[in-house]
Task: structure prediction
Amino acid sequence: MMNSPPSSSESAPFNDPNDQVEELDSDKHYHHPVWPKRWHHPDFTKEASENWEKEPWYRSTTDRITHRFLTKQFPYHFPWGYIIYRTVYTPESEELWPIAKEKLIRVMHEWMKGELHHETRYGNDPRPEQLIEESHKDVIISDPGRWDGASIEQVRAHFAQYLRKIKQEEHCDDSRFAVCLMIDERSLNSLVKTDDPHGGFVGVVDGRYDTAKRYDSPLYRGFMRSLVCALWPLYLNLQFDQMEQLCPKVPDGWIPVYDEGDGTAQDQDGNFIPKNFGRRRPVRSAQQGCGRG
Result:
């Protein structure tokens, strides 16, 4: 078993990663041009994964979400992870950015291991969680010359172009291509300037949002925030639902915030909507949320 930590790679030194994109091959592991080399893991080769069924953990963990996540995916679903746009490059952010990246990874992995720690009836073999942890690799789009202060629309346009190039314009079951994340100064500060080890939020951008399309919710704008503790549940749910279905419905003027449950809302500065402020609930909610609301 390989015990190297999961990694998030910064953009390689060429003008636009989208110019280097390759079409997806369902029989190969996912690759993004910002990564200097292709991902490889000895336990995710075709031969190794076919032998999973012979390992003790396979039968004892069949009811765990992590087991299903591993065994229902195709090779190109791995490594798994988000495409993340960094849009803040102040001197302070240079110090905070590594801390924020580490927190994103740590909190996602802690939530991913939730069943292992709290649902012992599903078995206590940690092997599925280890495999998922070791196959996590985010894509970090980071270029101060291009992305410093970039808007939601600019991030969406670039992500949408990427989806077209890999022929994933339509909704698919790979969460990496369902949305991208956006970390601006507010979200960066929310992650690192808090005493809450699981606190903070990031922006979530729907790359397929179309201003000309009529959505069920007239207030849907293809953008929401997600609490960092909800990023793993969000990744799971995006395999089945589009962002429009998962985005909380909130009053005009507020930013919807995904929290795995009924959802909540914030103002631009990250202040939560008052609890007695009436709002409609989202169309579909997952399990009990990790946030407030």
Residues 41-266 form one domain. Strands lie at 7-9, 83-86, 137-141, 180-183, 201-205, 223-227, 255-258, 264-266.
